[in-house]
Amino acid sequence: MKAMNFESISVELLYILIKVADLKSINKSSEALSLTQPAISKKIVQLENYYGTQLFTRSPRGMELTASGKKFYTNAKKILNDFHDLRISVLDKRISLQEISIGVLDSISAFLYPEFFIDTLSQLREITITNKIYELITPFNNDILDVVLMDSAFRTDLNGDFFEKKLFEEPYFVVYSKENTQVENLTDSSISAYALQKLNVLMYPNYCPIHQRIMNIYQEINIEPPKITEIDYSESIISLVINSPFVSILPKSLALNKVTHNINKLAMKPLDITFLRSVSLFAKTPEILNVVESKLTNYV
């Protein structure tokens, strides 16, 4: 067995492999990591030579992990998670996940950070996953929840002192049946607020943050919103969209999931730039914010 050389493997090498695997491109990884492409290629070869196996293959789709590479990738992510946990424990001995209660919208936990919540579900003191925005805001305002992940726009409903970290933005999409000629005949690359007015829209009831956000946007731009028919069940909405002229409005992450699972029947088209979803992490203290944010960065 080869003697361990601790200078051969570093956290940096693991991080580079994970970034190349996620982006499937040395060129994109070069920009993201601020390293030259030759430097990244050299470090990947260094890993492959050390373990005596090929970790990547090149294909028309970019850099693809081999079977050995996929196993290495999974274990490398676990090692980095442990490394971040160690760093947090050193920097802040007062706070651990076992002391934190988190609330999150279902669309965020299921489609944006599923691995984070799978890995931490049993570690957290308490977790609330819901599609009802008031089930996050009220407990947070009453100091029952320490952290919430939700649409940034709902910061105006929070009371008292809190700290915010914006995590990302994503566009909203109209999801519709491929047989819906009303949408198919729209020639623009995106759907404007005025074009949306003329469509038959299905959404969750107004407790849904997506529903609320769409209505708020129409108020902000001072035009009449489309007529919205409310249905309380996700699968019923998708079934009706597939089999009728109705459309639904979903953030990109959720829209991709629904369309991918019904690829022969559904299509999606973005709403224009007016309709952007911003998601933030809100916490009661900066220390709690830093602990949770540090964990989330491992799952981006």
Automatic annotation (TrEMBL):
Q: The HTH lysR-type domain covers which part of the protein?
A: 9-66
List the InterPro entries. LysR_HTH_N (IPR000847), LysR_subst-bd (IPR005119), WH-like_DNA-bd_sf (IPR036388), WH_DNA-bd_sf (IPR036390)
The answer to whether keyword Acetylation applies is: no
Could you say which residues form the signal peptide? none
For this UniProt record, the keywords arranged alphabetically read as follows: DNA-binding, Transcription, Transcription regulation
- Report the domain of life of the source organism: Bacteria
CDD domains reported for this sequence: PBP2_LTTR_substrate
* Molecular function terms, GO-annotated: DNA-binding transcription factor activity; transcription cis-regulatory region binding
Q: Does the keyword Glycoprotein apply?
A: no
Q: Which Pfam family, giving just one, matches this sequence? A: HTH_1
Q: Which family does it belong to?
A: Belongs to the LysR transcriptional regulatory family.
Name this protein carries in UniProt: LysR family transcriptional regulator
